[in-house]
Amino acid sequence: MSVRKAVIPVVGLDTRFLPATKAIPKEMLTIVDRPSIQYIVEEVVSSGIDQIIFVTSEGKSAIENHFDYDFHLDCVLREKNKRSLCKELDMISNLIDIVSVRQKKPLGLGHAIWTARHVVGNEPFMVLLGDDLVLAETPCARQMLDLFNELQEPIVAVQRVPQEQTCQYGIVEGMATDRDRIHAVQGLVEKPAPGTTDSDMAMIGRYILTPEIFELLGRTTPGHDGEIQLTDALQALKNIRSMYAYEFEGTCYDAGDKLGYLKAILAYGMRHEKLGADLTAHIRQLAADL
Ligand code: G1P
Q1: Structural domains in the chain plus CATH codes
Q2: Residue 17 and residue 29: Cα distance in Å, rounded?
Q3: Going by CA atoms, what residue is nearest to atom 8 of ligand 1?
Q4: Number of helices (H) and strands (E), helices first, in the chain?
Q5: When you count CB atoms within 10 A of the terminal residue's CB, does the N or C end of the chain come out lower?
Q6: End-to-end C-alpha distance for the chain, whole angstroms
Q7: pTM
Q8: Residue 160: how many CA atoms within 13 Å on its side-chain side?
Q9: What spacing in Å lies between the alpha carbon of 208 and ligand 1's midpoint?
């Protein structure tokens, strides 16, 4: 089976980014010249998936508006003959048809994904977390879809992190396979206490899941932080079928964290078609002055 749908949870109060996120969702904070959520949507679309389901909560309507057509703005720009801007806005509103479901209670990431069960139905699907931006030559989603087409089993994207950071992630214990970057998952634990795991393989927010996950999520009881954790349901899924961890090619930036956000701006800015060369020269100058 092939993957046609992607679920992007955009829920929560975004307290890590206050006060910037008092009136706007964190997914709408700008990285260079577009909101961070647009990078995620572009990754999905350029990977060949055209059905995106946002799981939203209160205060997130700016995200749906961003991908919608704005008739009034379009008229004003046309009157002013701002053709290239019109074209760019047109491109954004043509990227996806917006489907959104509402998570009515803040019960955790696992619960947010479960909320999309009726829209996804009985087929494999991808999940992308809005905080994790991946800079890669081949989009991370595309790399995972290629692998899924071969393996037809759930896949979680992982990166190696220093031991002292394992408590900030869902950690995968796995066994090397005969293929580079691919591990057979043995166990998963959400944000393990320091010293309780030897593994340094941290899940970043990219998953390809099979539909059994919905029933398992429905049965998952609150775990770490009192929330229904996707990681706990993944452990249950792993108990009934094979699952793989994939060390993707590229660099992941946690744009939901203030320092990660700044790093993302620099990385994306330095690669920007028009601004990259000047920004890089400026960073060199700053570094020389240190
Ligand atoms: C979530 C997941 C965690 C994963 C992380 C990646 O945690 O629960 O397993 O490692 O995303 O960003 P959060 O960052 O929402 O606390």
Answers
A1: 5-289 (3.90.550.10)
A2: 10
A3: 170
A4: 11, 13
A5: C
A6: 54
A7: 0.94
A8: 6
A9: 15
CA–CA dist 86, 90 (Å, integer): 6
Residues in the chain: 290
| 8-20 tens-digit pLDDT | 999 988 888 999 9
Burial 240-264 (b: 16+ CB within 10 A, else e): eeebbbbebebebbbbbeeebbebb
Strands 170-176 and 182-190: antiparallel
pLDDT digits (tens, 9 = 90+) for 45-89: 999 998 999 999 998 999 999 998 888 888 888 898 888 888 888
Which residues contact ligand 1 via a Cβ below 6 A?
109, 129, 131-132, 169-170, 190, 202-205, 230-231
User: Where do we find the tokens 């790093």?
Assistant: 263
Q: Which of 26, 109, 113, 166 to mutate to test the pocket of ligand 1 (most atoms within 8 A of CB)?
A: 109
